Amino acid sequence: MLSQYYKKDFKILNKTENDMRLVYLDNAATTQKPDVVLDAVSRYYTKDNANPHRGVYELAMRATDVHEKARSVIAAFLNAERDEEIIFTRNATEALNLAAYSYGLANLKKGDEIAVAVSEHHSNLVPWQRVAEITGAEVVYLYPDEHGEYSEAELRSKIGKSTKILAMAHVSNVLGIENPVKLASRLVHQNGGIAVIDCAQSIAHMKVDVRDIDADFAAFSGHKIYAPMGIGVLYGKYALLDSMPPFLSGGDMISHVHESGTSYAKPPRKFEAGTCNLGAEAGLVEAIRYVEAIGFDKIREHETALGELAVKGLNDLGGIDIYPSVSGKARNLISFNIRGVHPHDAATIMDSYGVCVRAGHHCAEPLMERLGIGSCLRASFAIYNDDEDVDVFLHSVEQSRRVMGIGS
Ligand SMILES: Cc1ncc(COP(=O)(O)O)c(C=O)c1O
């Protein structure tokens, strides 16, 4: 089993929690970091640290090299056409805000529509609501069916001549299944709009090829793919980036500044105001190497097998509502409720078995409203999880019910 080889690479997984083996199943929130990533960050700060682009001395040139090589590695990883299509941000949220404020404010007007999947994480929903408020454009929501899927009919009925922007996650952080982003991109392009794809939940679990899905913008956070927190990426098609005004302004993003005004650098620097997080970039490069060495086919097969095992176990327990209630779909995360037990109570009890799961609305309140629930539990798997983790997880679910006086 894959995890036998990889668990040892993550120091934190070899410690105990409440004197129990740590069963970390909150990977959709953030992943743990392997030693190679931590070493890369440390190596950067002990050998190459300086402010990039600003110094002519050897050390500063090495730092610039780290920064630009990271851009190149990420461009290749996403199959971008050019390195200049990769913009470093703090996280996916900042990347999506950059697209919304810079592209959206410059291109939307009253009468235009922004098609937003209702299952979006707030990061790919609230910025569009804000930009709609400012420009007078309208947000039109796409709704999934009872299987959690966006049907072609739904896409065709909502994406039309007025749609200027489509905002959709590659994989929902609650439903866990792949969205039809390729079809949605094609439809929005046919109508002259652009596609903004949130890859935060796909990036560590399946190949993200921005040209294959034909995203105009794609965003992800490094911390969801075994890299440090504080680094995110916005991919954007170069012609679009070149046509857009800056988002944040200040140092490093200018060409010339005069009392009378400022001219801007070309992308990507136009969108990278201030000092970037080079240590985290170095970590992200190593994280990408790490997952590529394993391979996405293996990763997907392993995580899907764990997901299916967990779904089967929950169904066997009975009294569990799973969202969506279908199995047989590739997914590394499962959202569910234990009937009669509040998710926060369940998560607290599960923690006493060393099991870390997320409870709440998962930053997807409009989806929760559609599902008719206030909150739910979410267990999400990564390469280092194994069958034993699923067993402990299922046992902890059972115990939550027992402690709360539900069932036999
Ligand atoms: C689908 C999705 N998009 C965006 C985000 C936001 O990521 P971050 O908080 O790293 O910006 C998350 C985080 O959970 C997510 O799951």
Report on this model:
The chain is α/β, with parallel strands linked by helices. It has 2 domains: 2-27 and 296-403, Alpha-Beta Complex (Aspartate Aminotransferase, domain 1), CATH 3.90.1150; 38-291, Type I PLP-dependent aspartate aminotransferase-like (Major domain) (Aspartate Aminotransferase, domain 2, 3-Layer(aba) Sandwich). Helix content is 39%, strand content 17%. It contains 13 helices and 17 strands. It has helices at 2-6, 35-48, 58-78, 92-107, 126-135, 152-158, 181-190, 238-243, 278-294, 296-317, 343-351, 365-371, 387-403, and strands at residues 16-17, 20-21, 23-24, 86-89, 113-117, 138-142, 163-169, 194-198, 217-221, 232-236, 254-258, 261-264, 320-323, 333-338, 355-356, 358-360, 376-380. The strands form 5 sheets. It has a 7-stranded mixed sheet with strand order 4-10-9-8-7-5-6, sandwiched between helices. A hairpin with a 2-residue loop joins strand 1 and strand 2. The longest helix has 22 residues, at 296-317. The protein is globular, with a radius of gyration of 22 Å. The two termini are 34 Å apart. The mean pLDDT is 95. The chain binds pyridoxal-5'-phosphate (PLP).
